[in-house]
């Protein structure tokens, strides 16, 4: 007969806290945190959107619907004329998130692009934190708590939270830790060809998530390696050969895989060179590094006014306590080469993130170094404020290193140091703890669209024209098209395109200027009905013919719907009410015989 205590012993063995279970618990914690952050959107994905700006989510949902057409209909993935018809949009130059959208096709088909959007945001936050935890715990620190702290901050920093409501492509950084680690591995690789090929595959996938973040990663790796070699130049003699071979293999393989997509991006239809002037000088205020981000426990939107270009670009907000602790970590561990290299990397990109004009509390101080880099190839398409995200990752790694060093102390004061370390962590991380993203309701997609009534009017080479015409500030029409998986074309939209519609021009938001679009946008915002003359009517009809418009659609519940209805009736004649919209059938006015 077995001893009485054997059952209890077996039970304890069965529930032993293994490394695998510990890792799963950490991943579960990150997922719960991501669900907490996105909880307000999960309540009603189709009916809720970021409270401050709604354009970017509509654009991403449009791109997710495009991925459905790529998979189901074999459509060209890098360009589409389903919006901005007939000029179309260069999707490679607009971050069409194909590496995220294509795996999400089943979700988009079953539940719609709005659900896919919130799934990507949730997985982007949790996945990035989990990936950094994985790399830090396996290759940088041995203490699981240290890796968890570093992973947490990399995944849920104020910079990540600020992008979460708008840019799933930017917060989906789960490949970056592995890219960084592979770059470090190839400096001492025994199989540089294999390691270069693995790096090339990671680079290729990341290019179809977000090229800008990939460029940042490459720049950060370069600066970090230079900082290490400056301190230990003897490493170069053993590192240059495997590094050279692996980089050459990576360049050839990734270059081959990306050659055609990059050709389309830079020389294909509707390609542009350089960002719009509206965002080229986006930079961080120095004071932003000492303020908590808006979507955090200690954040205050009013206090952050003018410290960042807008609330979706709070890329530098560490809070004063974490900023001081980060500096303290560097001073404490300054004898360690890795810490000095991290500090140099973080400081370098923090400086670049200040943009062309360095400011303190919105007062310009002097010209920043970005002024001399902004016109260089590739860098002319970078938003400088986002360099602050590199500094954020550096701070996360410094936190992981510092926590491990504190927990590794074996002196008589070790317990006191650990207590102080915990207190410092709480003081640093509590003010910037993530809070649920703020959302607001948005108009539902009209039943006229969801019930497929539009199919009675719109042919394959015709457009449905939402009123107001889709633009950067009016993206509801893009959501209509996305819910049908882009079964109809629309004019206009929110995207980046060459300024004058000619490939190679500098970029601008939106397509060619539209007289009727600007007219209706003004009516929608002011509620004033303009007096139109025959010349304006003729120009408007010419634009409708250029768009091959079949119908114009105005939701009955649209803001300032009545002035809009009167204006459109003055342009093309009386409307007909169908379900919850006003419809103008203009096929007789815009057809070939008109």
What's this model, at a glance?
The protein is of the alpha+beta class. The chain has 25 helices and twelve strands. Helix content is 53%, strand content 7%.
As a percent range, the share of helical residues equals 40-55%
Q: What's the count of strands?
A: 12
Alpha-beta classification: alpha+beta
In terms of quaternary structure, the protein is: single chain
Unreliable runs, pLDDT <50, ≥5 residues? Answer: none
Report the radius of gyration as a whole number of Å.
27 Å
Distance between the termini: 98 Å
Shape: elongated
Question: What's the number of helices?
Answer: 25
Organism: Micromonospora harpali
Pfam families: DUF6311 (PF19830)
InterPro entries: DUF6311
Protein name: DUF6311 domain-containing protein
Task: Explain the overall architecture.
- The protein has 594 residues and is an alpha+beta fold.
- Helices cover 53% and strands 7% of the residues.
- The chain has 25 helices and 12 strands.
- The strands form 5 sheets. Strands 7-10-12-11 form a 4-stranded mixed beta sheet. Strands 1-6 form a two-stranded antiparallel sheet. Strands 2-3 form a two-stranded antiparallel sheet.
- A hairpin with an 8-residue loop joins strand 2 and strand 3.
- The relative contact order is 0.12.
Quick tags:
single chain, 594 residues, 7% strand, elongated, four-stranded mixed beta sheet
Task: Summarize the topology.
Elements: H1 6-14, H2 19-37, H3 39-42, E1 48-50, H4 55-73, E2 79-80, E3 89-90, H5 98-101, H6 105-111, H7 113-140, H8 144-156, H9 158-164, H10 168-171, H11 176-186, H12 192-207, H13 211-231, H14 236-267, H15 277-280, H16 320-332, H17 337-352, E4 357-360, E5 363-367, H18 388-407, H19 414-429, E6 439-441, H20 447-450, E7 463-466, H21 476-483, E8 496-498, E9 507-509, H22 515-526, H23 534-547, E10 549-555, H24 561-572, E11 576-578, E12 581-585, H25 587-590
Parallel strand pairs: 7-10
Antiparallel strand pairs: 1-6, 2-3, 4-5, 8-9, 10-12, 11-12
Helix pairs in contact: 2-7, 2-8, 4-6, 4-7, 4-21, 6-7, 7-8, 7-11, 8-18, 11-12, 11-13, 12-14, 13-17, 16-19, 17-18
